[in-house]
Amino acid sequence: MAKQVFYRQCRLVKRTATGEVQQVSWIPDRYAVAGKVVKLRDDDGVWDDGWVVRSAGTNRLAADQLPDFHQMSKAHLRASGDLE
């Protein structure tokens, strides 16, 4: 049986030519350490290097418990009639 992977919600920052970009993301627990530099995969599958973990949440979720924000957004648009 494969080892279960847990995730933590983290605040990530990246310095760019125009300043600093921030985002919140669920990343594997073993990388969720303040100060660690990580790579994130874009929607198109390209890796984006240089993100620094600013802080990590205390709650851990298994992969099957992670919220699917894409599906939640589509469901909201359908329910609100904004999808059309």
Question: What keywords describe this structure?
Answer:
1 helix; 14% helix
What gap, in angstroms, lies between the N and C termini? 44 Å
Q: What is the total domain count?
A: 1
Task: Determine the strand fraction and express it as a percent band.
Answer: over 45%
Radius of gyration: 15 Å
Describe the structure in your own words.
By secondary structure, this protein is mainly β. It is built from one helix and four strands, in the order E-E-E-E-H. It has a four-stranded antiparallel sheet, with no helix packed on it. It is globular and about 40 Å long.
Break the fold down into its secondary structure elements and pairings.
Blueprint: E1 6-16, E2 19-28, E3 37-41, E4 47-62, H1 69-80
Antiparallel strand pairs: 1-2, 1-4, 3-4
In short:
The chain has 84 residues and is mostly beta strands.
